Amino acid sequence: MTTEHQVTQDGVKRSHRHEGPQKHIVVFIFSIILTAIAFAAVAAGGVNAAFAVILLLVMAVLQVIVQMGYWMHLKDRGHMIPILFMIGGFFVAGTAIVMGLYWVWW
């Protein structure tokens, strides 16, 4: 990481960290590996269906964390409100799914 200096209108020098492409390249390779593992589990054919579904769900959750954290920059400071709104959305969607399943099978 490098530090960039910015001079504001008041003449005050402020600095902020600038991420280089190294982290993005590592995260991109990690995303490709996760996708390859999920694809290989399904393409193998001999894998137990329940294990494949669980593996795909785990890979999907990891992929979401990586995508949100690094590509959408939610790991940075000042992004707490969008994170809280997404958590609220997941809660509402999860509640709707659970209640829909309960309603269908009750």
TrEMBL record:
A GO term from the CC aspect: cytochrome o ubiquinol oxidase complex
A GO term for molecular function: cytochrome bo3 ubiquinol oxidase activity
InterPro entries (UniProt xref): Cyt_c_oxidase_su4_prok, Cytochrome_c_oxidase_bac_sub4
Topological type in the membrane: Multi-pass membrane protein
GO biological-process terms attached to the record: aerobic electron transport chain; electron transport coupled proton transport
Pfam families, alphabetized: COX4_pro
Chief place where the protein resides: membrane
Subcellular location: Cell membrane
Keyword Iron-sulfur part of the UniProt annotation: no
Keywords of the record: Cell membrane, Membrane, Transmembrane, Transmembrane helix
TM region positions: 25-44, 50-71, 83-105
Family per record: Belongs to the cytochrome c oxidase bacterial subunit 4 family.
UniProt name for this protein: Cytochrome C oxidase subunit IV
Organism: Paenibacillus azoreducens
Higher taxonomy: Bacteria, Bacillati, Bacillota, Bacilli, Bacillales
